[in-house]
Every structure is written in C-alpha cells, then in structure tokens.
Amino acid sequence: MSIDKDILDRLMEGRSPGDLFGKSGILSELTKALAERALNTEMTLHLDEERANGASAEDNQPPNRRNGNSQKTVTTESGKVVLDIPRDRNGTFDPMLIAKYQRRFPEFDRKIISMYARGLTTREIQGHIEEIYGVEASPSLISAITDAVMEEVAAWQNRPLEPCYPIVFMDAIRVNIRSDGTVSNKAVFVALAILPDGTRDVLGLWFQANEGAKFWAKVLSDLRNRGVQDILIAVVDGLKGFPQAIEAAFPRTRIQTCIVHLLRHSMSFASYKDRKAIATALKAIYTAVDATEAEAALGGFEESDLARQYPAIAPSWRRAWNEVIPFLDYPPEVRRLIYTTNAIEALNSKIRRAVHTRGHFPSEEAAAKLIYLTLNATSAEWKRSVREWYAVRCQLAIMFDERFPMA
C-alpha cells in the first residue's frame, strides 16, 4: 500500500531534504508517532479482550482501564526515540511492539547482526552505529546482540538432514582460535550438499586441530546420526584419510577427487613458462572417454620430457588415481558439475573474507557464530539451484537406479 502524496507533501512542508534523517529528522518523528499509535491500538485491543473474557467481573473488580503513560527511550534505526508507553490500571498490558524490558527495536539488532556477518569488527560496528544513528553501542551490547543467535546456531547444527544427498562437496578452511592463552590454527570443515531438487545446503560446521581420519569419522558419524543414509557422490579436495572414512561410513558412496585441485597441485611444481604445455598434456587425462584412454594418456605424459623435467607431477596423479577414474564413468552433464570443488571454494572464500578481519576468535563458538551469520547473509548466492539440474538428475537416476529414483 502506497502513502498518499498529499500526506507526504504536508509532512515535508517547510522542510528540506536534509531534514529527513538524524536525531531530530522527520523519520525519527514518524517512528515515534507510528509506534505510539500502534501501542495505543494494542492497549485498546488488550482492554477489549479482558472485558470480553470477563476478567474483572470474576473478581468483582471494576473493569481494567488506561492509567496514563510512562516514558521509555528506545534505540531505532534512525536514532534514540522517547516513546510514551500506555499503562493500564491492573498492570497486565505487555505490548508486542516493544516489550516491557526491551530497549531496542528488532530492526536495530538486525542491522548490527548484518554488519557482524559481513566481517566488520566490533570497533568498526561501534563507529558505524555512532556515525549513522548517533547512538553509542558498547562492545558488550554488540556481543549480547550477536550472542543471541547461538541457540539458533545450535539448532541448525543439530537439525535433521535428508536421507539421501546426490552430491556432497567436502572441504576445510583454517581459522585461529584462542585457547588456554594461546592461539591455535584449527580446521573448520564445511559440507556443501546438493539436494534432490538441485538446490544447495550447508550440512554443518565441524572444528578440529588436525584433519586426521578420526576427525573425518566423527564428521561422517554425525551426518549419519542426523539422518543421512546415503551419499551418491562425495567430492573431496585431497584431504588425508578422508576417502577411507567415507568408505567406512557410506560404503556405497563414490569418492571423487577434485580435478582442479590436482591440476593446481601439478602447476605448483612447474615454472610459469611450462604451465600451459603441462595443462594441455594433463587435459588429455581428465577429458578421456574412459579409464583405459585416461591410463594411456597418463602413461604418455610419464614418458614425456615435461614429466622428466618435473618428476613430482605424474606420481601425484598416480597416488590419487583411484579417486580420479570414477569421474570418467560419468556423462558430460555430471562431469561438469563434479569437475571441481569450486562450489564450496566459492562459499569458503566468503567465509574467509568475513573471518580475515578478526585475526583470531576467543572460542570455537564465536567462530561458529560468525560463519553461520555469514552463511545466512550470503545464502541467496550459494543456495540457488544448480544449472542444468534436470539433465544431471536424469543421469544420476540412470546410474544409481533404486538409490536415486526420479519420482
């Protein structure tokens, strides 16, 4: 519903555009007027409901009625506003718009959470709040507002999951956590899944100092306990011990190493001038029609001058070969999707940008809070459906038959 232009003209009469914002701007006046109007409407409804329920009649008391106002200073998006809060004689009125002990409008809290999710430090948030709203926000206030999401984080971390995920990308980023007076570098493990409808979802976050087999077993056990019964394809990024842990928890899952990760690892051994030639030679391996042709291409590379010049490249492909060749069984639609862990790397890059300004976190809970808020703030980007998903789903239904029916 739009506001009548005549009303807007009357509101702006005698004012300049600069009078809109600030402590004494028209927006502050409108907030006060509209809030007090809503509070008085709430009071009228409250008294009407009490009379309809006969609350006073049962105690032989006179009907409840208004009993003046009390003033409360609340923080809004446009600054501090002094509201006249209506009171009732019996003291039973507890407004929904601004509760008895509430001193900030919900939108104000959401602004702070949004800034926090975008990686701003407490000091930066303080400066923005002071500059934009003319309100002092102490570090303890900012912490209290952002800490309020921890229950939500815990519920999200323990929520039930789907019984089957077609594809799960698994990777880890590093964050600095303070513990017992020292700062240690810990891995935050992220699992990004593609759902049966083609949309994406982050299944959870897991913290660990070392990315060993026991840690991966714990992660996968958690997924099973939350309802995951099957993963068709798990795309991993060269994480030590991870393929073995997946095989133990989900024996039917096909494990696929990230081809791009292997290529980047290979290029790290080569001089810049030779990288294009190496990329061309290695492309013949992962674009092969089948495993036999890929084996021949790798063998050909091993006999080349490039392989002799850079002897570490070919063995790195041999070591990962069992996790490379499943890729060759898939049709082009599926290959394009699982060719790389770029989907999760793009997500992790958003997380890294947010945590970069922090330096280190006082606890794992503080890191989890920021990462969760970052995921929420950027969800529109990473949750969107996979391109060409219908074609991919059809191919997966053929390949995995009863494990992933189309219906």
UniProtKB/TrEMBL annotation:
It comes from the Bacteria. The keyword ATP-binding does not apply. Residues 58-78 have a biased composition (Polar residues). PROSITE patterns: TRANSPOSASE_MUTATOR. Keywords: DNA recombination, DNA-binding, Transposable element, Transposition. Residues 52-78 are annotated as: Disordered. GO terms for molecular function: DNA binding; transposase activity. This is Mutator family transposase. It comes from Komagataeibacter diospyri.
